[in-house]
Amino acid sequence: MQTDFCKELGIELPIFAFTHCRDVVVAVSKAGGIGVLGAVGFSAERLKEELDWIDEHIGDHIYGVDTAIPQKYEGMDKTTPEALVKMLQEAIPDQHREFASKMLSDAGVPEWPEGDDEVTLSFSAVQAQALIDEALTRPNCRMIVNALGTPPDDVIKQVHDAGRLIGALAGRLKHGLAHKAAGLDFIVCQGSEGGGHAGEVTSMILWPQMVDAVAPLPILAAGGIGNGRQILAALAMGAQGVWLGSRWLVSEEAHAEPAQRESYMNATSEDTVRSRSFTGKTARMLKNEWTEAWARDDTPDPLPMPLQGYLTFDAVRRTSRYAGSGDCQKVAFNPIGQVVGQINEVESCRDIVFQLLNEYTDALDNINALTPET
Ligand SMILES: Cc1cc2nc3c(=O)[nH]c(=O)nc-3n(C[C@H](O)[C@H](O)[C@H](O)COP(=O)(O)O)c2cc1C
Fold first, then answer.
1. How many structural domains comprise the chain?
2. pTM of the model
3. What atom of ligand 1 comes closest to residue 67's alpha carbon?
4. Residue 343 pLDDT > 80, yes or no?
């Protein structure tokens, strides 16, 4: 199972774990794969604390950091985070603010305490730069990954000059080709069944097309992988590794309020939707009253990214912290992919990795048994 890309990185298993939780990063890297910390919700100071903790606990293992610099966004001309945030806050229409705020109060979601700025949002190059600078001070951080677009040329150069690899997510062939043309080292190719931002083409169709289109660049297959059979399928289609996001959300190490975990555990694969209602770009999440309300004709349309993200920032942090209050789950942000229907138990990341491996080996044996020995 050790692919060339694993060898290049020096990891045993081609299992890449996208997560916002430092404990998941450490657990998966220690189990032989590699954890990649999503930093979009962190300020540079907070990321420093998270990486300090990871560095203390991860031993000799390596990890990655993921940022979100969209290809195009409102306020791209702003050169400081302060100017960008001010412009975005002023551009949000009152009608949108009132609609969002009423939905939260109708659902009984408590207000966010004043002065608590534990959570932030960095959907832009000016904000992500400080995160990348921090990540590159860490010798064990071997890869930077970017969501939502090809990273700017100066970031690619900076990461390469620091001797690390840089990759990016792609949900469309043309995005993968743009990543290759920009000189990225690998592509995370995500089909539409995946959690978080997702395009329209399914993994079964997109992965092999991407493998062929960007060869010899390594592809990590993402979107819809939750067991070893799906890993075998991805590797059979030419992927050099698999990139899983949803699978870790209900692991023992993931930080989640019990009510959110329960929503995930009770959901079937038909209970997700691709919705623009939280970030402004289509992202897959659990369907609820919030996602349905923003899709109606008689309600405001979601704003473009990152405006909608700034508008719903309060909803995201409140519904995460107060997941079990009132009817919070009716309006909560619960991003997850269609594999949610396969996830029925809370297990440790280590057990999940072993299970993935065992299922992969069994599936491979079954395939090999189809070929008669000569
Ligand atoms: C809760 C959640 C949040 C995500 N946030 C990000 C993100 O900030 N950056 C990113 O590159 N990908 C993000 N993704 C997408 C994952 O990196 C990954 O591509 C996706 O989860 C793979 O599909 P799967 O959910 O079927 O495993 C997120 C996915 C989930 C489930």
1. 1
2. 0.96
3. 9
4. yes
